[in-house]
């Protein structure tokens, strides 16, 4: 899975923005906290939930369960707006 090509990711200070290019059903932008921004950056290339969890655990001291919960929440939110290509 990865971010749909109809979206552009932009870092604005500590905030990650995901902007629709207008070629998707969703029209607007998504503002993300640092954790969600990290997940979005991982999704810029083809990846899996498990790979993102491992990258999060390498960066932060977090349990596999908490990391997976965070990843699933962000990915499901992005899927709901059509921002994920599976």
Give the tags.
86 residues; alpha+beta; 3-stranded antiparallel beta sheet
- Main beta sheet: 3 strands, antiparallel
What's the helix-strand series? EEEEHHHE
- What's the helical proportion of residues? 40-55%
Individual helix count: 3
Basic shape: globular
Q: Alpha-carbon distance between the termini?
A: 4 Å
The low-confidence parts are: none
On the 0-100 scale, what is the average pLDDT? 94
- Which structural category fits the helices and strands? alpha+beta
Strand content: 15-25%
By DSSP, the count of extended strands is 5
Gyration radius from CA atoms, angstroms: 12 Å
Spatial arrangement of strands, main beta sheet: 2-3-4
